[in-house]
Amino acid sequence: MTKGWGNASKSKSPQAWDRRMTVPADAPILTADAMRAAEAACAAAGVSLSELMERAGAAVADVAWRMAAGAPVLILCGPGNNGGDGYVAARLLKARGAKVRVAALAPPATDLARAARAAWDGPVEAFAPDTAPAPLIVDALFGVGLTRPLSDEWSAMLRRFAGRRVLAVDVPSGIESDGLQDWLPPLPAAVTLALGALKPAHLLLPTAPACGRVLLAPIGIDAERRMRTLPPLPPETPTADAHKFSRGMVLVRAGPMKGAAGLSAAAALRAGAGYVVLEDGGPAPLSAIIAEAPAAFRARLDDPRVGAIVVGPGFPAGDALAAAVGEVLDAGKPLVLDAAAIGAALPRLGKGTAAAILTPHEGEFARAFPDLRGSKIERALAAARRAQAVVIYKGADTVIAAPDGRVVAAWPGSPWLATAGTGDVLAGVCGAMLARGGDAFDAAVAAVGWHIARARSIGRGLVADDLVKTAK
User: Fold this and answer.
1) Residue 285's domain is classified under what CATH number?
2) Which amino acid positions bind K(+), per UniProt (predicted)?
3) 178/299 Cα distance (integer angstroms)
4) How confident is the model at residue 282 (pLDDT cuts 50, 70, 90)?
5) Has 143 been labeled as part of a binding site?
6) What's the domain count of the chain?
7) 170 annotated as ligand-binding
8) Is the pLDDT of residue 21 over 70?
9) What is the pTM of this model?
């Protein structure tokens, strides 16, 4: 299968990246197996699968009606229930007066799809290499649960429609919905309508960009919320009786690369910490940060007012880091562990230690957890359980996982965060959120939300220092 997306992935508008890669906030995420279980639970509660298909098809028809804006629509139907959703959408669009054609890859192969096909009173073409296009293509060929890549023949047929507006039903055909495979669709979508819940592939690389703008149709599935998308960033206003220590005291241990620790300290202060102490950082990046020599800093470790300690930014692996990590673990305070500090702390994490947030990027994750396999969500969860700590598995498709199984997927982030020092900033923000007390997972989610929102507000040309300057 080709990995190119053709003209559909291109845009002349500098703002189009954010418009294309939009997902609903705080929305449930289900794997294919979890989705089938949720559908079965609906059926057991009295909502038939045929009713769910009718609702799904109605949602597809509504979005297609708006996208087509009066232009003809071609609906491509596969043999399974995804194709059944397409037949329902075709019937409802025709009833609205839309110009609809249906092309089928194969006859319906499930009872639900057969019933939906029987209710469609229009002609059905064979989807073939010479199938004529339409201004709007509705891709209802294959939904969740695809177990093998599309054939070269089917891929070539779909690529003929490159450049047309495409509405994908649940996932673009060719994508494995659980994020376990890196198959890319031959025909990426301008809009993907997720049915009942989002799927991991909507939020993980490399498939997420091919889904375009992701919309969610709440068709009546009672989706569990152990996995969800990033919630909106709540407004943060200190209470009337707040003081600097109630807002959180953060200590930042500095390694040989002083600038990294300085970024973390400044970020902690900007993110709301009331008091920040930086170890031997030389001149502090902000006047309100307390810079202390190592001996005085270590004396702070026993201060009961300390809400969180950040260690790792700018601190390469070695004996000095191992000693620093050992000291902060012995202090029993909530921790943020970044970079090489993650591997140094792993042998002791979860053995009576305080709450911890780990912030690895891809390379750091691979070094700390080299044996983990599966989707990025599955690997993040496995790492969190092993470390008994919250894991922020960084990247454009950041995943936050807790040992108890909670997951937040933070796609899309900001492409401008792909620059040196932004991870050090995130570690400091995690320190500020963790120092307030409360749940470490909630602190990590709030930190990632702050980081992304800040980056989006700055936009083009962002460097890490911009994230800790005066708030916009």
Assistant:
1) 3.40.1190.20
2) 82, 139, 173
3) 48
4) low
5) yes
6) 2
7) yes
8) no
9) 0.92
